Amino acid sequence: MIQSLPKKIVTCLAIGSILIPITNSGSMSVISAEKAIVSLSNTYYSEVTAPILKPVWSAQLAILKKDRITGQDITALAENGKIFALQRNEKLTAMNAATGKKIWEFGSGLAPLFTYSNGFIYGLTRGGSLYAVNEAGKKAWSASITLPKATNIQRLGSTIYVTQEEQLAAVDAVTGKIKWKAVEKSNNFTGLSEVMESDGVVIRSYLSQGALTTAGLAAYDSLTGKKLWDQTRQWMPLAVKDGLLYSITNTFMMDDDPVNRKVKVSVFNIKTGELKGERLYKWTDTENKDGVYNYNGMNGNAFLDGKDFYIFQGSKFVKYDFWNYSAEGKPVQTWASMVKEKDSPLNQVYQQRMLFQNQDKGTLSALKLGTGQLVDLNIGENPVVQTDLFGNVVYSGQSDGLFHAYDMLTLKPIFTVNTGSRNFAPSLKTGGMLMIRTDNKLLAIKLPTSIK
C-alpha cells in the first residue's frame, strides 16, 4: 500500500521500468515516452584503428595578419633535421626537429614568406626587403627590393626571383645585389608566382585581363631583365629542349567544337618567341544532345611526365610519346576512364599511380595505371581538411581533429594523432620527424621505424 506523502513534495515512484509522477493530491498518471519520427542506425561507418601517437614537442607559430594573408604564406620549413619557423614575435627561429630545442633566433619584423636553398634561408621583411641567413643563423646580406606584398621567393641557379603582382625582381643569391626589376602594365597583367629559367631566359606566367581573362607568358633576359617577348593564351611551358619551348595553347572560346576536339601544343623559339610549329592531339567526343552540362573538369586536360604526355579524352585517357610526335600518331596506351566527375587531376604520376583531388570532398585518390582501378587514399571517418603524401605514406587531417597515417600501397592505417583541432596546414617532414601544423602550432611526431 502506498502511503500518502506531504503535499509540498513532488516525486516519482519507480514501478518496473515506468516512472509514475505523484501529484500533491496523491493521484497517479502515466506519461508515455515521445516517439521519434525517424530513427536510423548506420553500422557500416568507417573507423580507423591504429596506434595512438602523442607529440614529443610542440611550438607556436606566427599568427597571420590580414594584410599578409595570401595563398603562398610560409610560416615554417623543415630541412636537414631542423625546423625554421616564424614565431609570433616575427623572428625566425631554428629548432632541432627531434627535440624542439632552439638553436638560434634571427631578425625582427619578418613576413610569413621565406624559402630554403643550398644552406641558406631567403625571406622577406614586412618592409619589403629580401634577406639571406645561413643555416647557422648568420646574416649573409639584405636587399631593399621594396616588395612588401610579394607572394613568392624562388632560387633558380645563382639568382633569387621575387614576384609581386605585375612586378618581378632578380637578386644575386651570393651577394644580394639587385640585378634588375621588371614591371608590366597592371591594367592587363595580373602576376602569377610561377617562374622558370632556361637558356638565359626567364619565363613567367601571368593572367591577361580583358573581355576574357586568359593565361600568358612573358620572357626576360636573365642578365639584364630586358623583356624579350610575350605570348597570350599560353600555359606555363611543358618543357624546353634544344632552344624550343613547348606550351599548351588555351583555345577556349576560339575553337570549341564539342565533337572534334584537340589539344594544341605550340612550339616557340625561347629567345625570340617566334612560333616554330604546332602539334595537334585530336579525338572525337560524343555530342551532348540533352543540354545537360557535364562538369568533368578533366576533359581536354593534359600534362607531361618525362616523355609521357597524358591527355584526358572524355570517357578515356591516353598516353603519347611526347618526343616522337607525328601528325596522325596514335597513343601508345589507352585506358577506359573510371575517374569520377568531380575528380580533378593533379597532373602528377607517382608509383605508377595518377593522382587526383575530389573537388567536393578535397580527398586524394589514385588511378592505378596498371589496372585502371581508382582508389580513394583518404579512408578516415570524417571530412578531410589536409592531405600530404611523403614517400608511400598518406597523412590525413580530419575535421574532427584526428590525424591519420596510411600506407598508400596497402591502405593499412599506421598511426593516429588526436590534435584537438579542426584546422590544418601542410605538414612538414625531415628525417624521422613529422610536423603536423594546426592552429598556428607545430606538433612534432616521431615516426615509427617502419616509415622511411
Automatic annotation (TrEMBL):
Coiled-coil ranges per UniProt: none
Domain Pyrrolo-quinoline quinone repeat: 89-231
UniProt protein name: Serine/threonine protein kinase
Domain of life: Bacteria
Pfam families, alphabetized: PQQ_2
InterPro entries membership: PQQ_b-propeller_rpt, PQQ_rpt_dom, Quinoprotein_ADH-like_sf, WD40/YVTN_repeat-like_dom_sf
Alphabetized GO MF terms: protein serine/threonine kinase activity
Keyword annotations: Kinase, Serine/threonine-protein kinase, Transferase
Listed PANTHER family: CELL SURFACE PROTEIN, OUTER MEMBRANE PROTEIN ASSEMBLY FACTOR BAMB
